[in-house]
Amino acid sequence: MSATAMSLRNGWRGLAFIAIPVMAITIFLFYPAALSIIGTLVHPKDGGGYTFSLQSYVFFFTDGYSLANLARTLWTTVVTLILLIAVTLPIALYMRFTKGPLATVIQALALFPMFVPGIIICYALIRYMGPNGWLQSLLSLVGFHHYASPHLTPWGPVIGLMWDGMPLTLLILISGLSNISNASIEAARDVGAGRLRILVSIITPEITHSLLIVSALNFLGIFGQALMPFMLGPTNPEMMGPFMLRTFSSVRDPLQASTQATITFLICSLAGVAYVRSIARRPREDRK
């Protein structure tokens, strides 16, 4: 068999391997999503036929409550993302450059939320930081009696989403830091570079892709989150996840719920594009 025929055969074999998952994604994800998006733009007329209309989008962007929910979702997502990276990056740096039992214990504690269901995290945080919870009781024992619970405030979902997103963020950052050679760090120290200079000039450029991936994945996960904002956050304004759920199940307005979902999808697609571009650009940069 010639090399051309062998290459063609291997190509068809590869396509056969990916055909089933691609078909499954198309049938169960892309097709329903496309129907939902088209349904927000094309509406049946009373006398038969269909008409194109942007009325549901006009309502969303002229409704103060809907815009307040969108603003709350953006605020929660950005604040959670910033705090998540600020908390996990020092932990990742410590575990990358420190060996010993203490580093192992810290890693185990940081990865523990990965194995806890979200609903359990919510109830645990309510019992811990809620009114008359364990934290308030501990503070009362030391004489602090002015505790204000973050439960059912904008900071409630931030705390819960940080706890939930910490393991994945930490694993990705540790993976990026593992690509930094100890030789480059030692060489920088030999020429007099301090810790801050090493962090800015050597470590940060090497983990730029990891930071982009962490930011994109967490943005996608936080923006569309429904459980933790529903259980830990306020109801006015609320995040887009609980807002869509309530619009569909309680208000019984599928059209407006689909419109909210489409707007959420379009915003999240920006993070998805950034993630895909970062993944596609990395092999080209590695070949340089």
UniProtKB/TrEMBL annotation:
Residues 70-276 form the ABC transmembrane type-1 domain. It is found in: Cell membrane. CDD domains: TM_PBP2 (cd06261). Its main location: membrane. GO terms for cellular component: plasma membrane. It holds the Pfam family BPD_transp_1. Gene3D superfamilies: MetI-like. GO terms for biological process: transmembrane transport. It is a multi-pass membrane protein. InterPro entries: MetI-like, MetI-like_sf. The chain crosses the membrane at residues 12-34, 74-95, 102-126, 155-174, 211-232, 261-280. Keywords: Cell membrane, Membrane, Transmembrane, Transmembrane helix, Transport. The keyword GTP-binding does not apply. PANTHER family: INNER MEMBRANE ABC TRANSPORTER PERMEASE PROTEIN YDCU-RELATED, INNER MEMBRANE ABC TRANSPORTER PERMEASE PROTEIN YDCU-RELATED-RELATED. Belongs to the binding-protein-dependent transport system permease family. CysTW subfamily. This is ABC transporter membrane spanning protein. It comes from uncultured Pleomorphomonas sp. The lineage of its organism: Bacteria, Pseudomonadati, Pseudomonadota, Alphaproteobacteria, Hyphomicrobiales. The gene is potB.
